Amino acid sequence: MDNSTMHELGLDVVRLTTTRKTHRPHAALCFDGHIFAVDTTRTFGNDPIQPDAYLITHAHSDHHGKSAMMSPKSICSEDTARALEIRFGKEYMGRTFRIGETIDIDGIEVATHPTYHTIGSCAFSWENDKGIRTLVTGDVKDASDLPDCDFLVTEANYGDPADPSCYFEDDVAGLEQIIGDNVALGAYAFGKAQRAVSIARNAGWQDEISMDTKGYNLTKGLMGDCGPLTEIMQYNGGHEGLVIVPPWDLGKLPGSMKKYVLTGRRDYYYPAIQISDHMDVTGLVDMVVGLEPEATLIYHPDGHRPQRLAAHLNKVGCPAAALSDI
Ligand SMILES: [Zn+2]
Known about the structure:
By secondary structure, the chain is of the alpha/beta class. It contains 8 helices and 19 strands. Helix 6 (213-222) links the parallel strand 13 and strand 14 (229-231). Helix 3 (78-88) packs antiparallel against helix 6 (213-222). The mean pLDDT is 94. Zinc ion binds next to loops.
């Protein structure tokens, strides 16, 4: 699959450039005279291509909301806007919507769909003049609420079929078993920390959860039903109940605590519990096959995984290309 395949669908994929002529992150989709940028940094006045909108799929740093949030043309879910403001301490300048709403962007009706990757994470879909349905997913944990499409723009965070670490299942039962007093979980402050809180609460843990300042602010600001939370002011003091901090802060907690890292990696000093914000490669392939696109563009992340997933999809009969090959 190449650019001509997409052109036949009435779409062109362009890379935005910086003043130094390097590519801005990710891409912009051009169709029927509109330009929607996806998860990229905002352009400046003299840049040759000026998008009509900056779609921000979620508030993880590698999707560049920190930059795009400063443009009035930015568009993201209410929860993503709040997460960006809490994470980066700046006012979000763009438009927001509730996930599930259909919004008008530059005269185009754009539907929005949950992807369950982080709080606020969201996919966008619309139809062009040729009746081609485009779906932009961002990162996906659960694809069950995504609509069928003709042109799919998606991710490959765990997309290498030849890499054993791209096959996993979440060990929710294992996490539920160890939840208790004097237990510390290492989890990134945005995404995994909220997932850990919600698993603990669903498992019946009603007592205090103590978190580092970032995790506390994000969880308090984004989760309506997070239960009793305490902000950790000093690591060497006594900590109430269950503790959730970034993995690199576990060592600052008392040695008497039982410590675990929520990760698919096996190179941490502490025992790991497999909890991911992502689908594994089996999930990604099932998603693409199930959405039945005529063409798939894999736009994220950097590295070789998009090409590996695209090669596999082509083999199983789904025309696909990585952004780096376009
Ligand atoms: Zn992400």
